[in-house]
Amino acid sequence: MVAAFSICILFFYNISLAQEAHSSHPAEQQPNTKQDKEDELDVAGTILEHIRDDHSWHLWGHTSIPLPVILKTDKGLEVFSSARLSDEHHNPVVYNGNYPYQQIEGRIKVVNEDGSINAEASKKLYDFSITKNVLSMLISVALLIIVFLGVARAYKKTGVSSAPKGFQSFIEPVIIFIRDEVARPCLGHQTDRFMPFILNIFFFIWINNLLGIVPFFPGGANLSGNIAFTFTLALFTFVITNVNGKGDYWKHIFWMPGLPVPLKIFLMPIELLGVFIKAISLTIRLFANITAGHILVLSLVSLIFIFKAISASVVVVPFTVFIGLIELLVGFIQAFIFAMLSALYIGMAIEENHEQDLVL
Amino acid sequence: MVVGSVAAIGAGLAAIGAGIGIGQIGKGAVEGIARQPEAANEIRTNMIIAAALVESVSLFAVVVALLGNG
Question: How far, CA to CA in Å, does A293 sit from each of A9, A150, A285, A321, A324?
C-alpha cells in the first residue's frame, strides 16, 4: 500500500514538475522586452505564499476554488464568498459588507475609504472562515471516518478470529504497532485507557502529513505545518497529561524527593517550566519539520526559475522526487514521534510509586 | 557582491550541530545493534526518539533564523 502510494506520488511529482518546467519555457523564449523585472521570480515570497493559509484554494493556472469567508464583527456575523475579495486578475479589492473589507497579506482587514487599514475596527474583527487549511482538515477527517468506519464494520461482521481483508490488512498492523511499540512500553497496564487518544493523534497527523505532500487539489495544504494546528494537538496532550497526573508526578515537580532543601527550591521553577516546554516542543517539532519539508521541495523547484534554464530540471526533478520520498518517511516518523512522546509524557504522569527516577 | 543575511549563517550552524548530534546517535545505535542484534528493535525506537529530540533543537534554530530573516 505504502509502496503503491509512493509510486503514485513519484509519478505525480514528475508530472507536476514537468508541467511547471514546461510552462516556464515560452516565457524564456520571449525577448526580455517589458517585464525584465517580472521575470525575476520573488522566490522567498512565492514559497511563503505557498505554505501560508489562504482564503481560496489554488488549483492550476488562474483557476482557484473560492472558499467561504465567515466574519464576526460588533455588527454581527456575515458570510460571503472569498471570490468577492479579488477581481478577475487576482488583485485584492474592497468588499463592502458591514464594514469595507480587504485582504491584506492574506488576512482580512477593515479598511478606510482611502485604502488604509482601520486598525481599531480590525481589532474587533474575528475571522472564522473556512480557509484552505480548515477545508483540508475537514477532508482528512472525512477520509479517516470513511476508512475507519469501513474497517470497524468489517470487524463487526467477521470478528477478530478470521484473517483481515482489504483495507483491514493495512490498518491492523499499524494499530498493533502503535499499541505494542508506542503505547504499551510507556503506559503499561493503563494502555487501553489512552489508546484511543494515541491512535487518534497518530492517524490524524499522519494523514495530514501525507495529504500535505500531494501537490494537487485534495492535498497540498500545509496543515500540519501550521502552528495553530500543532499547538492544538499539543494542547490535548498537555491537558490529558496534567489532568491524569498522579500525586507522584506533582511531587516530582514541586518537591523533588531525595534532594537537599535548597536544591528542591532551585529545581521547582525548572521542573514547572518543563511541564510547559514539553507541550511547546511538541508544537514546534511537528510545525518546523513539516514546514521545512515544504520549503525544501518548493526551493528545489524554484531553482529551475532561479537558473532560468530548463536543463536545471535534469538535476532538480530527481532530487525533488528524492526529497518527496524522504518527506513520506518524515511524515510517518513525525506522526510516530508525536504519538510516542505523548504516550511517554502521559506515562510519566500516571506512573505510581517508582523508586528510581526516570532519565529523560 | 554577496548579499545575504546573518540568519543564513545561523541556520548553517544549527545544521552542523544537528548533524554532529544525529551522527553520534546513529553511530551509537549501529554499534549497539552490531553488538546485540537481538535488541535491534528497542535500540531503533530509542534512536528515533533521541534523533527527534536533537532535530527539534536544530529546528528551533531554523525557526528563529526564519523569524530573524523575515
Answer: 15, 32, 12, 12, 8
Nearest CB partner across the interface for B63, out of A288, A334, A344? A288
Rounded to two decimals, the pTM is 0.79
Q: Answer whether A337 sits within 8 Å of B45, measured CB to CB.
A: no
- Mean of pLDDT over chain A: 79
Task: Inform me whether the C-beta atom of residue A227 falls under 8 Å from chain B C-beta atoms.
Answer: no
Nearest to A284 among B41, B45, B56 (CB): B56
- List chain A domain ranges: 61-130, 133-350
State pLDDT tens for residues A171-214: 889 999 999 988 888 888 888 899 999 999 999 999 999 998 88
pLDDT at residue A36 greater than cutoff 50:
no
Report ipTM (2 d.p.): 0.70
Chain B residues whose beta carbon lies within 8 Å of the beta carbon of residue A334: 52
- Residue B1 domain flag: no
B2 located within any domain = no
